[in-house]
Amino acid sequence: MRDLQAARGTAIARSRTAVTEPNRRRLRRIFATVALVGLAADVSTKTIAVAQLDPQAPVPLLGGLLTLRLIRNPGAAFSQGEQFTAVIACFAIAVLGFVLVRLVPRIGHVGWAVALGLLCAGVAGNLSDRLFRAPGVLRGHVVDFLQLPHWPVFNVADICIDAAAVFIVVLAVVKNVGVNGQAAGRPSATATTAEDATPNAPAVAEPDRRPDS
Predict the structure, then answer these.
(1) Cis ω on the peptide bond leading into residue 152 (within 30° of 0)?
(2) What is the rounded CA–CA span in Å between residue 25 and residue 48?
(3) Which of 6, 57, 104, 117 has the most CB atoms around its CB within 10 Å?
């Protein structure tokens, strides 16, 4: 009986692994696609902006709703922390490393695949400016060129980061879904499998306490 239950637990574990791993590979492909498309959009639009826009001649579009205004930002979002450009660059490298090493292997939900892809696209887009643009490595100024009324100038990487933040808040706070695709407090598939595989303890017969005849 014990061998039969152990074999059943092993079969369940194998079946769950067979279903889960292809799904995880698909989610990682979604993550990679979103990250690469977002990064390509950011780099290409910055290249066009630098080549075509004059910093002294903003271009109003959509009746002034959107303005193309080229600036070089040495700081973080909204030009904050201009004296800590190298620190901001190092922090961005740490964020990318954490997401790629710790979070991406655990992705179990398509929403998290998109959110982390957008986050990596945005962080990598602005980080590439700090690494490869003037005045030097880790001190490069970020290219910003999009402006809405009463709003600081931003770029496509900033849009990706903001969209990722919205996704993460909705998934983690509103829907209570973790990176692995499970609700907080719900046992993982591994734990469930282990529980299924644990054989029931055999019943212990009570001794016969009747008096001798």
Answers:
(1) no
(2) 34
(3) 117
Q: Is residue 62 in a domain?
A: yes
Query: For the chain, what percent of residues have pLDDT higher than 90?
Result: 66
DSSP letter string, 138-175: TTPPEEEEEE-TTS--B-HHHHHHHHHHHHHHIIIIIS
Assess if residue 93 is contained within a domain: yes
| DSSP one-letter string for 57-81 | B-EEEGGGTEEEEEEEE-SSGGG--
**Cβ–Cβ contacts within 10 Å for residue 178, how many?**
18
Q: Residue 107: inside a domain, yes or no? A: yes
* pLDDT given at position 190: 44
Tally of domains in the chain: 1
pTM for the full model? 0.78
Q: Which of 36, 105, 77, 50 is nearest to 161 (CA)?
A: 77
Catalytic positions: 144, 158
CA angle 139, 144, 150 (to 5 degrees): 125
How many whole angstroms separate alpha carbon 25 and alpha carbon 108?
Answer: 10
Residue range 148-184, pLDDT digits in tens: 999 999 999 999 999 999 999 999 999 999 999 988 6
CA–CA distance, 186 with 179 (Å, rounded to integer):
13
Checking if the pLDDT of 197 tops 50, the result is no
What residue numbers bound the domain in which 41 lies? Answer: 22-184
